[in-house]
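New here. Invent one.

***
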Amino acid sequence: MEGIINFANKIFQPLIDLGAAPMMFILLSLIAILMKVKVSKALEGGLKLAIALTGIGAVINILTGNFAPALQDFVKSTGIELTITDVGWAPLATITWGSAYTLFFLFILVIVNLIMLVINKTNTLDVDIFNFWHLSIIGLLVMYYSDNLFIATILVIVLGVMKFINADIMKPTFNDLLNMPDTNPTTTTHLNFMLNPLIMFFDKLFEKFLPFLDKYDFDAAWLNEKIGFWGSKFAIGIYLGAFVGLLGQQPATTIFTLAFIGGVSLELFSIVGTWFISAMEPISQGITDFMSNRLQGRKFNIGIDWPFVAARAEMWAAANILAPIMLGIALILPGNGILPLGGIIAIGLTPALLVVCRGKIIRMILIGTIMIPIFLWSGTVIAPFVTETAASVGAAPAGLEEGALITHSTLEGPVEKFIAILVGKAGADFNFNSILAAFGALGAYILLFIWYIKQMKKRNKEYEVNKQEAA
């Protein structure tokens, strides 16, 4: 395995030395061309990714450079140690795609997906190539603690297999939530839905002990319409910027500046994030064409990014309500070091809440509140890894002071991050207690997933019965 790592370093180091944006432009374009994508389209995808990487770096620099002094003053005046900068999901994607190992994990997961399709263990073809970085960061986290590529790869494969199975089992719920016909192939393999089993555990508790809550559900579309601009990314960024300025006891001019910077940063994170997704379209189409030619006549689902569920108003209503709740929890939660900013709109959580709770907004809000500490603790724990990895791939924010940390407060897969840390530590020292902890955590995670699959199969049978009765 050491030989593989050395070989990979020799191959990729000259590219890594170019920096994240040039490296990914070259690699993505070449891979797309190998998948028989038209050269002009392949180059377009590579250029879009390079521009997105460059753009997100600029936004990070603006955010960290302006917020750091106020946060430092806040710590001095209150003693509350919320010094980790929350840069949101897009910068984490930049950092992860800046590692050559991400391409290795991508290659492995594509092979696993194809094998599962061929042996009929999944019906989902995952074309959401960009979001493979979510599992890559799990592998990189294992390697951060152990430098063991073999163990990291095994964990990535295990989670990948579970992700593909989950995409299949969720398909009837997507059909029901979005009124999609059975012929529509749309599903998703996004890592945020791997939180479903834990959410379902709490959902079943609410169903058993607090079933009356559903009587008080309200119209989420009406709430979003009433909130309007005041619940937008612009507005939430303004609130947070002003809040940071007030906490840091800054002068009025600085408070206004931070408010406007917060507003533009949250909006730009979202806009630049769409560039990443657009950049992956050519290679995703190439893989789709490849599979269509080789599995003719086979009905399979297409795994894409999660935003196709964004049409459901409950998701955004829950996100708007959970944002101030998250801020309040962050201020008092022991072990948390993050003041939520880039991740304050909890898209790493709300899509899974929508699927499991099936739009029951009160359940979504209550269970979301229970989940928030898990995200904050996870984001706090991985901050040293994120910061060091950013520096190693040349993606560290300019002006970041020595010892300062960056992270994402609602990064998808918080439970998986803790498992990766335990696995990484076990792989580093092979201590009996470390190995026992890693196997115990992973075993519990898999058992909960198996229970969840059984519950979803029951739900899917109900869908079938309802359709037959309607017919």
Observations:
- The first helix runs from residue 2 to 18.
- The chain is about 70% helix and 5% strand.
